[in-house]
Amino acid sequence: MIFRRGRRILVGLLLSVLLLTTACAPKTPGQFDQVQKESTQKKSGQAVAKNATQGSEFNKLFPGEQDGYQRVFTQEKKGFAEANLKKGGKVMAQLAVSDTTSTPSAAAKYSSSTKKIEGYPAVTLGNTQTSILVGKYQVKVISKDPSFTASDREDWIQKFNLSGLARLK
Fold this sequence. Notes:
alpha+beta, 169 residues, Protein Transport Mog1p, Chain A
């Protein structure tokens, strides 16, 4: 009986010592600890600028449903709004407006643009994206179906309320 009691005490004591030594041991830095520390200290790494326009302001400037197309909003957050353009239940394109205040490099690509849509500098990226810069706002149409052409993308950019977008502050 004394032997069992002594064994219990010894096991409890060993477990306590084990827990104490592992809890107090210095933690070895993980693979991503340094990067995490650096990224949280940077103010420039913030996702959205404080003065970025609310995404809800953009919603009313999107083109309405027309020509058999449905507009389905998919995302709205500060500085950004996005909608899918559907026809017959199939996503044909993605429409988006973003405030480039948070991403100045997005606006910089328009400085060398020679193409214009509705008087605004335009850029085509690959075979699927067309966008324009209206002040500090980028309007982008991305083809999601091969039948949705560059000409279709330009037509849909023109269907946005671009003058309303230009008046936003």
